[in-house]
């Protein structure tokens, strides 16, 4: 089960699509939309990323920093970023340790297959590093509006 609002967001350190290091503490003082997604270049993940891309300026205007995170490696993230001109950071979670810390690494079923995977979830983390809101039922086609509405921006 994902972490809940009012909990401290677990610290993490990882790299992005360009091999640059990122840690949650780097974003102290900022509103962060940390969105966990299953896989680069899949239909729903692409729809979600492109919605965030298309509304990126509005999210920035509202003071929101967007960070995507999945188990894909930096090379995959870079291809995804380039193919869809994504203007935000994609974080690497190869071993799914960050997803486990946030409670979004779970047993899933799809078309009769069972496997471990990411629960598509967005954590809205406030300027002090606390989880302000958790979006578990992500609307991939209109995720930016969902973030703005849930956060009350």
Overview of this protein structure:
- This protein has helices at residues 43-54, 56-61, 74-84, 97-102, 143-151, and strands spanning 13-15, 21-23, 31-36, 64-70, 89-92, 105-110, 113-118, 121-125, 131-135.
- The protein is an alpha/beta fold.
- It has a domain at 36-141: 3-Layer(aba) Sandwich (Glutaredoxin), CATH 3.40.30.10.
- Strand 1 and strand 2 form a beta hairpin.
- The longest helix has 12 residues, at 43-54.
- The chain is globular and about 40 Å long.
Instruction: Give the strand order of the largest sheet, numbering strands 1, 2, ... along the chain.
Output: 5-4-3-8-9
The total of beta strands comes to 9
Q: Write down the Rg.
A: 14 Å
**How many distinct helices?**
5
Helix content: 25-40%
Q: Assign an overall shape.
A: globular
Short structural description:
This protein has 153 residues and is an alpha/beta fold. It has helices at 43-54, 56-61, 74-84, 97-102, 143-151, and strands spanning 13-15, 21-23, 31-36, 64-70, 89-92, 105-110, 113-118, 121-125, 131-135.
